[in-house]
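Hi L.,

You mentioned the student needs an example of a multi-chain input paired with its predicted structure. This one should do, with 720 residues in total across all chains.
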Amino acid sequence: MTMPGSGASQGATPVLECRDLRKSFGDRVAVDRVGFSIAAGETYGLLGPNGAGKTTCISMICGILARDGGTVTVAGAPVDVGTPAAKAAIGYVPQDLAIYPDLTARENLAFFARLYGLTGADARARITDVLEVVGLTDRAGDRTDQYSGGMKRRLNIAIGLLHRPQLLVLDEPTVGVDPQSRNAILESVEALGREGMAILYTTHYMEEAERLCHRVGIIDTGKIRAEGTRRELVALIGQRDKVKLSATGDLGAAAEALVREPGVADATANESGLELIVDDARGSLPRLLQTAADAGLAVTTVEVVEPDLESVFLHLTGRALRD
Amino acid sequence: MRAALAIAAKDLRQRMRDRSAIVMAVIAPFALAAVFSVLMPSGGNEFTARYVIIDDDGGPIATAFIDGPMAALADPETGMAELVEVASEAEAREQVEAGELDAAVLIPEGFSDAVLAGGGAELTIVGNADATLGTEVARAVSTAFMDELASIRLSVAAVLHAEGGTPDPAHAAELAERAQLATAPLTLVGALADSRQLGATTFYAASMAIFFLFFTAQFGALSLLGERRGGTLPRLVAAPIAPWTIVAGKALGSFVLAAVSMAVLVVSSTLLLGASWGDPLAVAILVLGAVVAAMGLTALITTLSRTEEQAGAWNSIAAVTLAILGGAFFPLARGPEILQQVSLLTPHSWFLRGISDLGPAGTGIETVLPSIGALFAIGLVTGAVGLARAGRLAVAR
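Structure written out for the whole complex:
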């Protein structure tokens, strides 16, 4: 699995910049000096297990929760609980469903549109647009207590998109939804990122972070333990890709030929074939297979094992993401 | 302000979809007021007691009592009482016990002589157990008359003592007559009848209206807890609106629902049940005062609670307790003095007192200013604390 390219963040003016965020509840430190920035068109993932401090971070960024320290700037304006105007640049999609079950989807959207200053034809047009984006146009007139869990999640996201925010904050938007709805949600997020929206996405699903996020901050016990692209994070812990070849032929000679290839750190023959340690398995695979064939090897299967963010998290914290 | 209006409109839309709100705000109080007013012995809007007077004395004091305050009660203009005649004390007691009469006033032989001699004299009131209001009126009138006699005797004794020498009976009688003329015994009785006694329909329409008002007025504060439970409160706080706007929207929605439900009750009970509320402007301001008081108290109680369920339970307990203490279920005049004092702490008491003070005679707003002041004071004091706490609820710390 690969992450999107990281070009969006290079040299661009950050839409979100938070520094040194701190929050304690009594003696418990929930967030401890967290800081990161997100550029326009960039999707930044906060990856961590439940209770890591992701939602507390988001609550402070969105001006819902008063912080103990630190600064948050969105689109150049400082954000706090008492700064309503600055919040207009943020689209907030909370982890818990924040919709009214006794209102229809359209009524829910119309209500939140008014809170964001959208009225009349502009509001109606935006409601139509976001219903289309999340695929709820046909059910817009139904009360939301008649919706499936996935439909409610999609409406939850639609409300956050109503006012065309510069920063979209999604707090675990796929928790508890079926695979089909999850895929629809992820596709929507990918499309929004392509349109240039800055997106802050929290999740404890490693595969979502890898699919959506240009950069990932690994958060645990309130602290950012590491930050960067997947490759940067993997490199940080010194792990490389692994290529397993099932093959017949002169395994020893093939191993000697392959280990001389650039980017190959090690090649070991075993009972069923060869195991290679390489820097970039996907990039170098065609060349490696050609070298193996030149060495007289008949390759029957190829398996590429890339170290993932789960491995990084395990390495950094000593426990799994879902612990 | 636009955001507050949007929140209020959204809340009202939700409440209208929840039919239990309409039942609680209008249908239940109206139905109960109708049922209670039908069940009242006097039935209609006018209070009329049936009394019999057994005069075994026949003396001047007994005659003065019968022709004075008791006759005033039976005056067609006041219509407070109907005086009936029976053959004997035994028959009077029998009819009172059977509920045919509210009370019998028994004047024993030698009553006038005892009064004139300055000795102890007694009137006996035999009341029907189920007609406590009628009995209470007879007792109050009799007590007022006896108090008047005592004051006359005291006045005569004081003059004779000041003049010195042996009292001349003719002079004493002249003094007594002058003292009697100087008093206005019927004023007290008239005041009781005209301004403190509501008809059954009006009383129960007003009492049920304010009783259920406490269930209607709480919804704004409760819905704030509901937004928190339902997860929508963080989304409201994340919107580009000031946190106080959320509280203002909740309060506005609650106010509109409570005020409209009270207005519907006043109009419907007038048109359909024949209730007589009094001067419309004064009633309107009393209703607004009651709404503010109910909102303030329920906001305070709700914001002291941790959950919606807990707040609902506490508000219900408060609504019933305040209604009992405030005389919404029975007239406080029948209760002990301490209860009447405690009732002054309740909006119910002040509201009902205000409606009573307006009375059927069409007295104006100046008559009910104390009630209006008390209602707004209760509402503003408790509401200020409640709103401050609600503001803190809206923003997590």
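You could point out the following to them. Chain A has two domains: 7-235, 240-306. The CA atoms of residues 44 and 200 of chain A lie 5 Å apart.

Best wishes,
N.
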